[in-house]
Amino acid sequence: VFGWEDDPHRRNFAIGQPLDMDVPICIDLDRFVERSNGVFGKSGTGKSFLTRLLLCGIIRKQAAVNLIFDMHSEYGWEAVREGKQFSTVKGLRQLFPSQVQIYTLDPSSTKRRGVRDAQELYLSYDQIDVEDIMLVRDELNLSEASLENAIILRNEFGDAWISQLLSMTNEEIQMFCEEKRGNKSSIMALQRKLNRLGELKYMRPVCPRNYISQILESLAAGKHVVIEFGSQSNMLSYMLATNLISRRIHQHYVLKAEQFLQTKNPSDRPRQLVITIEEAHRFLDSATVRQTIFGTIAREMRKYFVTLLVVDQRPSGIDNEVMSQVGTRITALLNDEKDIDAIFTGVSGGQSLRSVLAKLDSKQQALILGHAVPMPVVVRTRPYDETFYTEIGDVAWEEKSDAEVFAAAELAKMDLGF
Ligand SMILES: Nc1ncnc2c1ncn2[C@@H]1O[C@H](COP(=O)(O)OP(=O)(O)OP(=O)(O)O)[C@@H](O)[C@H]1O
Ligand SMILES: [Mg+2]
User: Fold this and answer.
1) Separation of 252 CA from ligand 1 center, angstroms?
2) Interval 178-227: pLDDT, tens
3) Full DSSP string of 158-190
């Protein structure tokens, strides 16, 4: 029922095995990427490992192109693995060197970790919209009044609203308020608080290059993009950059999708894009979901060829309507009743599965249900180890012995009929 990985008619990926049998459980990746999906489970149950497995599958089978917001620097390059001894596992760039590009918002940290050719990535004030600021209103401690005044500033100054505001003197603010009916104390508070943006390493008042266009070019060329945050992974920094970049990339996809609808020319068809975000409930809780690009993407489904892979330890924090749009849910152990309820939002017959979820092992077990599997199933997650690397990764010829390389060359020649 769950198919085989080498099925020529499907892009199947073996995510694990049933608890009591030695056969693969496959996810149909084409069905997987056409809807938004979620990886859930409480802390330390294997969400990041499951996500890394899924991403490897999508890359290997070319089911979509990935944009990954790698909050904890664990997908692109090496990640630490828990255990008695210190050990690390390989990141996507190591497994697929020619297909994955790392961009970093903290170049010195990325370099320290031994990543050699990461692209630097800077953002500028003129790329920030009021909606990006609304998302981080708690982090910046902004009042409703400050946000309303931000809109007045934005209407007046356009893209330059933040640089204008930061350069205004008190007298200028006073004059502005008299003319445009702004509120002086709110604007001064806004100015004071937005000054914190200058502390973000990757934020520049102006940028000579548009780095987001560069990411778009990478994606259009079929490269998978991992964005590392390094020391810039606090919530303010993570949420701001993630929303801002995704918003622009989505805008571009909407244009491309509309063009494709008009021409119906297969060469105009945008590549399916999967955006991976950690701490997803921060972007998708009921209070913010209407303001963030992620709410839009989750609700519009496959229309514009962009879907989400949300990773979260607190699914009950995610808006119900968004949760019911999540096509495939891959869930490791959860204890909290509310979180368990959230997983079964919009699933008929969920009751009998509830007990299954609370009884999973605390590691390497998960319940998979939804669009990409024929029926709900519990798996022992595929081990992410040396065996997996050789099964999934691109062959790194420089690491192989001469004998192995020559043997492979002979085989290849025979294939070609020499
Ligand atoms: N498929 C797997 N293969 C090998 N090891 C695994 C696998 N899944 C989980 N583990 C083990 O479980 C540990 C915890 O997994 P992981 O880091 O993915 O948890 P998490 O749910 O992302 O935690 P957090 O909420 O803290 O981010 C790993 O360090 C690893 O030792
Ligand atoms: Mg994790």
Assistant:
1) 34
2) 999 899 999 999 999 999 999 999 999 998 899 999 999 999 999 999 99
3) GGGHHHHHHH--HHHHHHHHHHHT--HHHHHHH
Half-sphere exposure of 18 (CA within 13 A, CB side): 10
Nearest ligand to the CA of 43 is 1
> Degrees (nearest 5) of the Cα angle 26, 45, 100?
60
Q: Which residue's alpha carbon is at the smallest distance from atom 31 of ligand 1?
A: 82
Helix or strand run (H / E) with residue 225: strand 224-228
Residue 48 CB–ligand 1 contact under 6 Å: yes
Tokens of 91: 């990141």
Mutate to test the pocket of ligand 1, among 25, 45, 49 (most ligand atoms within 8 A of CB): 49
In terms of DSSP bridges, do strands 224-228 and 65-70 run parallel, antiparallel, or are they unpaired?
parallel
- Give tens-digit pLDDT for 371-393: 999 899 999 999 999 999 998 88
- Find where tokens 């940290």 sit: 109
In this structure, which residues have their CB less than 5 angstroms from ion ligand 2? 47-48
CA dihedral (279, 284, 285, 286) in degrees, to 10, reads 180
